């Protein structure tokens, strides 16, 4: 049990969770700033929240990419094309996990009548694990 705990609670996983919290903060802050700016510019709530969601998602994923690259997985990839490939892979994984989360929320809430907040917690756990595994095994994998 101690060895399992040591494998789970290490610098990489703890820093991944911290970066996740900071990424969520970036998402919420950018959403609020953009949403309020668009509303004060005369845009309706539905349109402003949709546009703000798109902008905040991009900002959060960019932040997450840089923070994960530098602090969590300590990727040493350099050069325009290798970094671009790594970044595209990171965004693709986030798009895939986001699509799966949307599908899971639809299934759990709409088809299985699960409470949406319980479903959100379950899908968030899935999302955290999926993105960590994708980052560790495919995006920021260490070269032997």
Percent of sequence in beta strands:
under 5%
Low-confidence stretches: none
Number of strands: 0
Helix content: over 70%
What's the N-to-C terminus distance?
29 Å
Secondary-structure content class:
mainly alpha
Task: Please summarize the sheet with the most strands.
Answer: none
Shape: globular
Mind telling me the C-alpha Rg?
17 Å
- How many helices? The count is 5
Report mean pLDDT, rounded to a whole number: 93
Helix/strand order: HHHHH
Written account of the structure:
- The protein has 144 residues and is mainly α.
- It is built from five helices and no strands.
- The protein starts with a helix and ends in a 5-residue tail after the last helix.
- The mean pLDDT is 93.
Compact overview of the structure:
Helix content is 84%, strand content 0%. By secondary structure, it is an all-alpha fold.
Structure keywords:
144 residues, mainly alpha, 5 helices
Secondary-structure map:
Elements: H1 2-8, H2 11-40, H3 45-72, H4 80-111, H5 116-139
